[in-house]
Amino acid sequence: MDRSASSDPRALLDACLSSAGPVTVAFSGGADSTALLLVAAQSDAARSLGLRALHVHHGLHAQADTWAAHCERVCAQLKVPLMTERVSVDPRGRGIEAAARDARYAAFARRIDGGALLLSHHADDQAETVLLRLLRGASIDGVAAMRASRRLGSGVLLRPWLTLRRADILAWLAVTAPALSWLDDPANRDAKFDRSFIRHTLLPQIDARFPAARERLTRFAAHAREQQIEIDAWAARALAACRRPDPCCLDLDALAKLSPVIRRTALRQFAHERCGAMPGVHELDRIECEVIGARVDADPQLKFADHVFRRYRRTLYLLPRSALEPLVGETTWPAGASRIDFGPLTLRAVDEHGVEAPVPCPLTVRARRGGERIQLYPGGPHRELRDVFQERAIPPWQRARTPLLCHDDELLAAIGVAKAQRLARYWPNTETCVIKV
């Protein structure tokens, strides 16, 4: 650890406070968060911004209510308002540690109120995180580990003590507030959890052989973060060059010209932008192999978060799952109405000025059934609608969500794609009116 840098817990906290909103300390009741809350309570800067504490009640331990009561007593002692947020933890498919963390950070985001949320993570936590992620095969972004600051919800998450060793924090706490008590969660010593195993079994053995290991791991995280910032900047520029007019699409030919590192980083940025989640190493491998690299005549798809990666021709799509559900049924568009709801869609008839225009006669709006034919121009052949879709490069899933406009059994238009010349028989001003979804 660089002892030339400030090792004063108070100075490190005050130096990071620039938020205009309230300062919230994430308070578990453990030694680290107790020390952080005490420092914040002694800080005029934190008090002036509106200091408060937040305890997340996970409900996972038999003593969870006792812990919450302890946090209330400490906050009352320090004259800091406390918010207690009860969360539901669903470990299915992720494990209890990951599920609890997700629930906790969701609570943080809800309660940040445009201000700063302070976490008590320190240099030892950072070293553990780097080692854990290395062992799990993380990318350079993953081994960059915890950031000193990042956006969270409407505010910012801050970790002012990432350069402090836990021993220094505990020593300061013992001298400053010897009468102050804190909690010890037994899960923190349970070796069945990966982080606890690293903390109490693996790192002590590494320390015995390599005394400076923790400082070197945290230094490695800082170097990785610097490299990732550069990669992110290059990837953002590359992503801009791969975009199509539709924001859910990327040009695969443009993607193919990128180096593997920049391409994969651009894909992660694209995914985060579209659905708020970033694919990991294995998910990126599947995107590249199973979707982008699928055979030409395939219709590949890969579920990711609440979205789906799909490919059509030389375009990569990332779509909400709801956007892939086919239309079903039919409804009547009555004469004189300018709009009609059909499933999740609202259809509007508008004139050339964008003003809604009523349809002149009753028409039917329905989903595809297969085998439809359409005559696109006078004297022309009645063509398979399927062929028209292919010629106009309409992806398969979009075809299933294209509403059809009919009169009796006669197809007059595939809305947004093509219209039949006979539509003018029922709707004389179709040259100046369009139907919008």
Describe the SSE topology.
Layout: H1 9-16, E1 23-26, H2 31-41, H3 44-49, E2 51-57, H4 64-78, E3 82-86, H5 96-111, E4 116-118, H6 123-135, H7 140-143, E5 149-152, E6 155-158, H8 166-176, H9 194-209, H10 213-242, E7 249-251, H11 252-256, H12 260-275, H13 281-292, E8 301-304, E9 307-312, E10 315-320, E11 330-333, E12 339-342, E13 345-350, E14 363-366, E15 373-375, E16 382-384, H14 385-391, H15 396-399, E17 404-407, E18 410-414, E19 418-419, H16 423-426, E20 434-436
Parallel strand pairs: 1-2, 1-4, 2-3, 4-6
Antiparallel strand pairs: 5-6, 7-10, 8-9, 9-10, 11-14, 12-13, 13-20, 14-17, 15-16, 17-18, 18-19
Helix pairs in contact: 6-9, 6-10, 10-12
CATH superfamily of the largest domain: HUPs
| Content-based structural category | alpha+beta
Give the number of helices. 16
> What's the level 1 CATH class of the largest domain?
Alpha Beta
Q: Into which percent range does the helicity of residues fall?
A: 40-55%
Q: Might you state the CATH topology name of the largest domain?
A: Rossmann fold
Total strands: the figure is 20
As a whole number of angstroms, the C-alpha radius of gyration is: 29 Å
Distance between the termini: 60 Å
Strand content: 15-25%
Domain unit count: 3
CATH 2nd-level architecture of the largest domain:
3-Layer(aba) Sandwich
Instruction: Outline the biggest β-sheet.
Output: 6 strands, mixed
Low-confidence blocks of residues: 1-5
Mean pLDDT comes to 88
What general form does the structure show?
Answer: elongated
Strand order in the sheet with the most strands:
3-2-1-4-6-5
